[in-house]
C-alpha cells in the first residue's frame, strides 16, 4: 500500500475506500510510523500546526437512566465517581471561564441523561448566552443527549456553535453496548442538530470488542452523517461497569485508528480524546501529528493528564494553540477544584 499516495488523494479532495481503510488498520507495527507521517501530511495541509484545545464542563454528573455498557454514569453503575445534580449558573460559568483562561478556544457543556427537558435546554441556553457575552470568540458545544423537536433551535439561538452526540460504535455492534436506546436515536439527533444550524460533533469509542471492519464501518457512518468534528475515544474500562477490565488496544493500534479516521475524514477536526493517556502512553505526542484537537486536562468522570502537561506537550511539539482571539501560545491552566455543599457536590474553578 502506497501511504503517501493515499494521503495525496485525500489532500486533493478525494476519498479512500473501505478496503483501504481496513488495510490501514491492519498494517504491521513496523509501518505505523510511516502511516503517522502520511496522515500528518493531511493534518498539516488542512490545519497547519494549530491545535484546537477543548475544555469540558460537567454540568450534571451520574444518575443516568441509560445502560451504555462503557459508561461510569450508566444505570446501576458502581463506579466511584462524583454524582451531582445541575451546577448553579454561576459555578457553570466560572468553570467554563477557567478553561478559557487556560487557553481553550472551545468549551463543551455536558450533562448526563437520556436527553434534556425544555427547562434543561433553557438553563444551558442561559449559560451559553452569558458565556458568549463575555467571550464572543469562544466556540461552545453542547452535549445533552437525545434532542426533542425545538431544542436544537433553542441552543442555536442562544449561541451554541456545535452539538456533540457520539455514534460511539458501528451500527452492527450497537446492540452489544447499549439496550435502552438504539443507533437511530443517536444518528437522528446528530442530523437534527445539523439541520438547525449546529456543527455536528460526533465520534467513537475504540476498544469495546468491535472488529476492524466495525471500526471502518463507524468511520464511514460518521462521514455519512456529516460530522465535521470527530472525537476519538479509547475505552476506559471503569470498575463497576460491564466492560470493567476490558483491554485490547496497543499504542500502535491506537495510532492506526487515529490515522484511519484522519484519512477518511480529511479536513475535519479529529480530536484525540478520553483514554489517550492510558492507551497511547509514551506515544501520545505522535497522536498530535494526526489530530488537530484535544481535550485539556480532565474528562467527565475521570482524571486526565494535567493541563499543564498537555500544554507543555503541545509547545514541545511546536504546535500553536488555536483560541478565541486567534492563535496564541500555551499558558498554564488552573485545575478545577471540587467542593461539596451539604449533601450535593458542585464543581468550582480556581481563579
Q: Could you walk me through the main structural features you see in this protein, from its secondary elements to its overall organization?
A:
- α2 (18-25) crosses α8 (212-224) and α8 runs parallel beside α9 (251-265).
- The protein has a single domain, classed as Alpha-Beta Barrel (TIM Barrel), CATH 3.20.20.
- It contains 12 helices and 13 strands.
- The strands form 2 sheets. Strands 1, 2, 3, 4, 5, 6, 7, 8, 9, 10 and 11 form an 11-stranded mixed β-sheet that branches. The protein has a two-stranded antiparallel ribbon with strand order 12-13.
- With 351 residues, the chain is of the alpha/beta class.
- β7 (229-234), α9 (251-265) and β8 form a beta-alpha-beta unit.
- The relative contact order is 0.17.
- Pathway: Cofactor biosynthesis; biotin biosynthesis; biotin from 7,8-diaminononanoate: step 2/2.
- Its cofactor is [4Fe-4S] cluster; [2Fe-2S] cluster.
- Pfam families: BATS, Radical_SAM.
- Its EC number is 2.8.1.6.
Amino acid at each position: 500500500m502506497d501511504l503517501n499516495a493515499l494521503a495525496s488523494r485525500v489532500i486533493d479532495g478525494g476519498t479512500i475506500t473501505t478496503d483501504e481503510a481496513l488495510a490501514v488498520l491492519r498494517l504491521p507495527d513496523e509501518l505505523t510510523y510511516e502511516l503517522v507521517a502520511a496522515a500528518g501530511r493531511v493534518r498539516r495541509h488542512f490545519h497547519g500546526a494549530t491545535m484546537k484545545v477543548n475544555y469540558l464542563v460537567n454540568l450534571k454528573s451520574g444518575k443516568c437512566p441509560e445502560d451504555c455498557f462503557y459508561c461510569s454514569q450508566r444505570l446501576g453503575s458502581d463506579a466511584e465517581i462524583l454524582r451531582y445534580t445541575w451546577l448553579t449558573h454561576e459555578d457553570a460559568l466560572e468553570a467554563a471561564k477557567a478553561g478559557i483562561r487556560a487557553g481553550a478556544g472551545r468549551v463543551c457543556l455536558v450533562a448526563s441523561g437520556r436527553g434534556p427537558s425544555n427547562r434543561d435546554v433553557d438553563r444551558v441556553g442561559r449559560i451559553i448566552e452569558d458565556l458568549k457575552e463575555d467571550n464572543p470568540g469562544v466556540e461552545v458545544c453542547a452535549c445533552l443527549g437525545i434532542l426533542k423537536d425545538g431544542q436544537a433551535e433553542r441552543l442555536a439561538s442562544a449561541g451554541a456553535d456545535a452539538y456533540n452526540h457520539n455514534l460511539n460504535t458501528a451500527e452492527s455492534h450497537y446492540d452489544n453496548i447499549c439496550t435502552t436506546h438504539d443507533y437511530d436515536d443517536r444518528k437522528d439527533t446528530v442530523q437534527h442538530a445539523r439541520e438547525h444550524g449546529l456543527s455536528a460533533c460526533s465520534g467513537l469509542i475504540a476498544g469495546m470488542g468491535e472488529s476492524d471492519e466495525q471500526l471502518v464501518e463507524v468511520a464511514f457512518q460518521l462521514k455519512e452523517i456529516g460530522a465535521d468534528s470527530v472525537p476519538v475515544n479509547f475505552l476506559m474500562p471503569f470498575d463497576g461497569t460491564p466492560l470493567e477490565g476490558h483491554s485490547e488496544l496497543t499504542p500502535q493500534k491506537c495510532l492506526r485508528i487515529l490515522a484511519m479516521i484522519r484519512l477518511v475524514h480529511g479536513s475535519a477536526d479529529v480530536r484525540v480524546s478520553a483514554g489517550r493517556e492510558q492507551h497511547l502512553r509514551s506515544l501520545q505526542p505522535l497522536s498530535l501529528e494526526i489530530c488537530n484537537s484535544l481535550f485539556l486536562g480532565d474528562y467527565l468522570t475521570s482524571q486526565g493528564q494535567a493541563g499543564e502537561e498537555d500544554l507543555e506537550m503541545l509547545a514541545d511539539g511546536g504546535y500553536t494553540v488555536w483560541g478565541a482571539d486567534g492563535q496564541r501560545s500555551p499558558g498554564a491552566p488552573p485545575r478545577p477544584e471540587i467542593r461539596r455543599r451539604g449533601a450535593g457536590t458542585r464543581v468550582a474553578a480556581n481563579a
